[in-house]
Design goal:
Layout (H helix, E strand, L loop, with lengths): L12 H5 L2 H4 L6 H4 L5 E6 L4 H15 L3 E8 L13 H19 L7 E7 L8 H11 L5 E5 L6 H17 L2 E5 L3 H4 L12 E5 L2 H11 L3 H4 L13 H7 L3 E5 L1
Parallel strand pairs: 1-2, 1-4, 2-3, 4-5
Antiparallel strand pairs: 6-7
Length: 252
């Protein structure tokens, strides 16, 4: 699947809300996902993936006082390739700043979160897959619970990060769980490409949902129309609707 194919209007939100398959997914709590002795590690291929896929889970884990690590694999500098407004140089500075503000809005202050920046090339993580595995081996522990975007999410960087995480996790004995992000945009509730047999819901209360919505609004570069290229923003209203439901899904 090409990245440009995953940004279309997608399956309407009401189709997801009326899905019997989605409604029947078993629930799982963050207490069950991340035992008290474990550290949660969230892998973000780009600044914003940690909020879009796991913004609720991060809040719930923080309330449980779990140790948290965020690994930002790239700085997201390639999100607007034809833009003269959002140049790669500007994005490389702004997008990590947007993530920092989003994390603050979630209530995750930097003294309670270890944040590692990988510096891998946006849209070309797969070209350095062996380097990424070595990088992850430096930071991951056997007792970690790792959250990564789903390997089939539709973006080459999401697949590469998932492949590296799953490989290293198996090697060292760490648990690795996958989170769909872009799949909400291109898939349908009955789509056989999604591993529904592994899917579980993490329910989010209204306060957690509200904080996640507020955090997403920190990503101005991804929300603002770009007149210089004529492109719609990567995070359009329909996409945001699907990413701001009353739960997050984890493939175990």
């Amino acid at each position: 699947m090409k990245f440009e194919d995953i940004g279309h209007s997608g399956t309407p939100l009401h189709a997801w809300k009326s899905s019997a398959r989605l409604a029947s997914l078993p629930a799982v709590s963050c207490d069950e996902l991340v035992p008290s002795h474990a550290r949660a590690v969230v892998l973000a291929p780009h600044p914003d993936d940690e909020i879009l896929g796991s913004g609720g889970i991060l809040q719930l884990l923080a309330r449980l006082k779990r140790n948290l690590m965020l690994i930002s694999v790239t700085n997201g500098s390639a999100s607007h390739p034809e833009s003269t407004l959002w140049t790669s140089e500007r994005l490389g500075i702004i997008r990590p700043q947007e993530s920092a503000e989003a994390l603050r809005r979630l209530g995750l202050y930097m003294n309670g979160l270890q944040w590692i920046h990988g510096g891998f090339p946006d849209n070309h993580v797969a070209d350095r897959l062996d380097d990424l595995k070595s990088f992850l081996r430096t930071y991951l522990r056997p007792t970690d619970v790792v959250f990564t975007p789903w390997r089939g999410d539709g973006h080459v960087d999401h697949q590469a990060v998932a492949d590296a995480a799953l490989s290293v996790g198996m090697e060292i004995g760490a648990a690795v769980y996958e989170v769909p992000i872009w799949a909400w945009n291109w898939a349908s509730p009955e789509d056989p490409r999604l591993p529904w047999e592994r899917a579980h819901k993490v329910h989010l209360d209204r306060w957690t949902q509200a904080r996640k919505r507020h955090a997403i609004q920190a990503f101005a570069s991804q929300l603002t129309p770009d007149p210089s290229s004529g492109q719609t923003p990567p995070l359009n209203p329909a996409t945001l609707e699907r990413l701001q439901q009353a739960f997050e899904v984890v493939f175990l």
